[in-house]
TrEMBL record:
GO terms for molecular function: 4-aminobutyrate:2-oxoglutarate transaminase activity. The gene is gabT. This is 4-aminobutyrate--2-oxoglutarate transaminase. Its EC number is 2.6.1.19. NCBIfam families: GABAtrnsam (TIGR00700). Pfam families: Aminotran_3 (PF00202). Belongs to the class-III pyridoxal-phosphate-dependent aminotransferase family.
Amino acid sequence: MNNAQLNELKQRFVANGAASPATQFADRAENALIWDADGNRIIDFAGGIGVLNIGHRHPKVVEAVKAQLDKVMHTCQTVMPYEGYVKVAEKLSQVTPVRGHAKVMLANSGAEALENAVKIARAATGKNNVICFDGGYHGRTFMTMAMNGKVAPYASDFGTMPGNVFRAPYPVPYHGVSEDEAIRGLKMAIKTDANPRDTAAIVLEPVLGEGGFYPAPASFLKAIREICDEHGMLMIVDEVQSGFGRTGKLFAIEHSGVEPDIITMAKSMADGMPISAVVGTDKVMDASGPNSLGGTYTGNPLSCAATLAVLEVFEEEKILEKSMALGDKLAKRFAQWQSDFDCVDNARNMGAMAALDLVSDKAKHTPDADLAAALCKKAREKGLILLSCGLYGNTIRFLMPVTIEDEILEEGLDIVEAALTELVGS
Ligand code: PLP
């Protein structure tokens, strides 16, 4: 079927809240390229929204999933365990920087990992509430929507979970929240609302993802570790978007040397197969009762096989070094754009987790969300998938595979530049 026929089906049968506004349907994909149902070639700078750090259909992952298909596709882990689950648990325990010996539970999505992490923290501390941050994003389940600090388009009228979510400021110096102010804001929230006697955990992204790719300073992360220790709260680090090599380390928190109690991960873990994990210190992870974690599909054999293959690819192909090198290339191009275009303001990257802000007035840093939307639209017309995000919707984020070939990278960046020139002049 072609794009037009598929769009007609979408309109008739897919619920509005689930239907993509995009009109090109993916037909096949390879590394940083996708071909749509009409045969158009498209460069993917979104990487399935951070899922494809090692590219679409990495051959080693495809091979591992095919081999697993020939053995066993499904057995509910609680009824009949299988090798892949325990091997993934062993590997993640070895590579995840939590405090002390780590244990693991697997789930299917990022939001599900967060749901389980909070469930575990509640069981381990006997307390209910959590503290989350302005600009944070953790998913679209009831609990994670209540935790999100990024407003439109994720605002929830659905009510909150049992227990309370308290909010604290995230350090975004560029938007007037210094690191010291953020720490003071957190301490104030603890003093006034989020009584530590009732609060199980502080949950944060070490690099704000949907909120605009702002890395938290190491000293802010260290302060949170100390505050958690002082008040008997757990530190939960959400690495669903920043994890699995995007920042040049397997996990972004490693840049700070801070060891949290729990890390959640998903997205690039299995090169597109659905899986997520909660990894935490053994005492914490073992706190909830028997059969309290998991579900029918959690850690399914195909996704486990893919995860093991991804971890091998990381070692064999030096993915972390590639991530740093890609970040450097992007930073150079951003610097050129900053001097060429009045509308390109702050640019930042931690490894290949890279973004820049578009503004209507550089001196005042006035966010221009309309320009960001127009740029993504124009890029798409020219054969490039580009995404915006951010506290003000004016951030352009770059999530192409770190395995992208140089000439495709350049072609994609040239499209961004040409689209910007058409929109604002040079
Ligand atoms: N946490 C973070 C930091 C995310 O960026 C996301 C998704 O973008 C999620 C959680 C939710 O993950 P999922 O969409 O797989 O539920």
